[in-house]
Write a structure and sequence with these properties.
Largest sheet: 7 strands, mixed
Strand content: 15-25%
Distance between the termini: 53 Å
Oligomer: single chain
Bound molecules: pyridoxal-5'-phosphate
Radius of gyration: 23 Å
Length: 458
């Protein structure tokens, strides 16, 4: 196997050399291509958001090589950040450095490189703990991502604590990852999965939520940000209310962590989960935060190496938290990448980034509002920069295909959140999801392409 020369990425930028094996990359595209003329120019509201927020998206764009490639002959506009985010060269280099200079298994080895790999792994855990405001690195369990973290909680805490007649409250806007594991658990334990209804704007109906809570409620599982509607439910208030009934609260942070700072203790989360790949880190790595006493009380999930204290054929004893929940060899390079991603993101003024994204969202809502027949789903106040939409006369899959022809990547389909689309009577929609490296020019390209599409079907 050829180890990529990480220095090749060093020079990568708007005008840098191509990384090896990337034929699709444009030699030197401008980082922000001039928008193609718009049939209906965007109103003056299009003042570049960075002017007022103090955050310049170019500082982030410069670091992300893939944003400078072309797709179908057009400079790429990546608006599929809700599915996965692109990686800064700091993360790419961390992986290259790990494999070219530091690859080793951890914990078990008595040699220098095993010690170094262990240090990287545990530094990653400490970085995640700081990033989430956790009590200690011991409260962080590495998982493959959000889905695995939720399944871990369902299979350990859930199996030990949910019984017949108990209730698990889940808002209708949840991702399937935060529905199906609870459904499986409820079926096994003869408990009930209770959907919390939404309001017309995509908010979680707080009156209904308060009415559904009872002493039967053992768990509230809620997203801190919806991947389809962008809704940011009042999780702190919901957690406080749930705790009055003795219920535990699991917060799905998959879509939140890249957009605004998180403090799990301030939120009152008993569990908090996220995926690295939605946070500019590699795929296959994510984390579960658990309140100390909860993790301590939970039985292990998967059995195997790394999670034991002593093993005999008469029985086994288990390692302390968090290792008890990390059976087998972990995704060590993934942790190195996650550490680099957290360093990269927290190197920006995160409040300024959040303000910038809000302005970009407002700009995008106005720009898409100019497209006849376009309907945006979800308008809850404070939503993250996610625009799920339909366009009259066009199937969402065709919208995504036609945008792709213009080099614009959006997702189409049910977004693994069928109940939230059905709230609007839909089975499918297109989604543009923005990140800190997106610009008003990206939004202009999207709006122009949609306008042209609209004119073609009219
Ligand atoms: C809100 C939410 N939860 C959970 C997930 C599942 O994440 P993963 O597939 O990384 O486990 C996603 C992915 O889109 C998501 O948006």
């Amino acid at each position: 196997m050829t180890i990529p020369d990480v220095r090749a990425y060093d020079a990568l930028g708007a005008t840098g050399p191509l990384p090896p094996g990337s034929p699709a990359l444009a030699p030197s595209p401008a980082p922000n291509p001039a928008p193609t003329p718009s049939p209906a120019p965007v109103p003056p509201a299009s003042t570049p958001p960075r002017a007022s927020t103090g955050f310049d998206p170019e500082t982030a764009r410069r670091d992300v090589p893939v944003l400078h490639r072309t797709v179908n002959g057009q400079p790429l506009v990546w608006l599929d950040n809700g599915a996965t985010t692109q990686k800064p060269r700091q993360v790419i280099e961390a992986l290259g450095t790990y494999y070219s200079a530091a690859n080793s298994n951890i914990h078990r080895g008595a040699h220098t490189m095993a010690r170094e790999a262990t240090e990287t792994y545990e530094a990653g855990r400490a970085a995640v703990a700081r990033f989430l405001g956790a009590e200690s690195p011991d409260n962080i369990v590495f998982t493959r991502g959000t889905t695995e973290a939720i399944n871990l909680v369902a299979q350990t805490w859930g199996r030990a604590n949910i019984g017949p007649g108990d209730e698990i409250l889940v808002p209708r806007l949840e991702h399937h990852s935060n529905i199906v594991p609870w459904q499986q658990l409820a079926k096994e334990k003869r408990a009930r999965l209770v959907p919390v209804p939404l309001l017309a704007d995509g908010s979680v109906d707080q009156d209904a939520f308060a009415g559904l809570l009872s002493f039967r409620t053992q768990l509230v599982a809620v997203s801190q940000a919806s991947n389809v509607l962008g809704t940011v439910p009042p999780v702190k208030e919901m957690a406080a209310l749930a705790h009055r009934y003795g219920a535990k609260v699991l917060v799905d942070g998959a879509q939140a962590v890249a957009h605004f700072p998180v403090d799990v203790r301030d939120l009152g989360a008993d569990f908090y989960v996220f995926s690295g790949h939605k946070l500019f880190a590699p795929t296959g790595i994510g984390a579960l935060y658990g309140r100390p006493e909860l993790l301590e009380s939970m039985p292990p999930w998967q059995g195997g190496g790394n999670m034991i204290d002593q093993v005999d054929f008469t029985g086994s004893t288990f390692a302390p938290v968090p290792h008890r929940f990390e059976a087998g060899t972990g995704h060590i390079s993934g942790v190195a990448g996650l550490l680099a991603a957290i360093d990269w993101l927290t190197g920006f003024d995160r409040e300024a980034v959040a303000a910038y994204e809000q302005e970009l969202l407002a700009y995008a809502e106005r720009a898409l509002g100019e497209v006849p027949g376009l309907r945006i789903l979800g308008s809850a106040p404070g939503k993250i920069a996610v625009l799920t939409f339909t366009l009259a006369g066009l199937d969402p899959a065709d919208i995504a295909r036609l945008l792709d022809r213009d080099g614009i990547a959006v997702r189409a389909g049910h977004h693994c959140a069928q109940p939230s689309l059905r709230h609007y009577g839909l089975e499918s929609a297109a989604r543009a999801s923005l990140a800190l490296y997106n610009t008003p020019q990206d939004v202009d390209r999207l709006a122009d392409s949609l306008l042209r599409m609209r004119q073609d079907v009219a």
